[in-house]
Amino acid sequence: MRAPASPTATRPVMHQRWSELTFVHWRFPVESVAGLLPAELAVETFDGSAWVGLVPFLMKGVRVAGTPPLPWISRFPETNVRTYVTDAAGRSGVWFFSLDAARLPAVLGGRAGFRLPYFWSDMSVSCAATRWTYRSQRRRSGARANLDVRVGPQLDSPDELAHFLTARYQLFNLVAGRLAAATVEHPPWPLNRADLLNLDETVLRAAGLPSPVGPPLVHASLGVPVRIGMWHWMN
Questions:
Q1: What is the CATH number of the domain that holds 179?
Q2: Which domain of life is it from (predicted)?
């Protein structure tokens, strides 16, 4: 069943654009992912499997609501490792195992303001025609995510699995020991077929995940504008 349309982020606290983005997804055994989640959340499955995504992109136009973008810190590469979950009431969302960013203020703000597991990394994104290249290495641990992607034609209508993996409008986190959620408002992703040409990554293992088995499912997107709401407690 398809997820509902994007909700509206009431009183959004952050505005940004996620651009030149690649979704790389693998199937995982449910038990290998479930053990890394808080007790309040369960793995959301598709075709009986958990799914884990490695998602590199270029963040643009980052600003706090009511303020203009700041040139140096409003544009930077980011890469996240994520999975898909439900809470006790069956509400769907994203759980982030890690988020790498190239700007230290973004890392500090993400950790302090959103309590998310951000890491400061040396990163670059290069998008030339149909060849997109991402490089990321954490400054302390050295965990890396290096990808080369060939972007294909745009999909007229994403299938059910692509929709399941990308139509995500809520993120979960533990804040002060309690389950909280934030609305992530964006239009549907314009998705392209894509092929993974090269992959050198250790960020999944750094998150406690086993090495993925089998070929990944890959999509690319030119991006969407995003508005993020403030955390609210989940009852």
A1: 2.40.400.10
A2: Bacteria
131 in a structural domain: yes
CA-based nearest residue to 46, from 6, 92, 95, 88: 92
Nearest Cα neighbor of 235 from 172, 180, 168 is 180
Q: Does residue 50 belong to any structural domain of this protein?
A: yes
Please state whether 85 falls in left (phi above 0), alpha (psi between -120 and 50) or beta: beta
- Rounded distance between C-alpha atoms, residue 144 and residue 122, angstroms: 9
User: Is residue 3 one of the residues assigned to a domain?
Assistant: no
Tell me, what's the pLDDT at 6?
A: 53
Task: Report if residue 41 sits inside a domain.
Answer: yes
pLDDT in tens, 111-150: 998 899 999 999 999 999 899 999 999 999 999 999 999 9
pTM of the full structure: 0.93
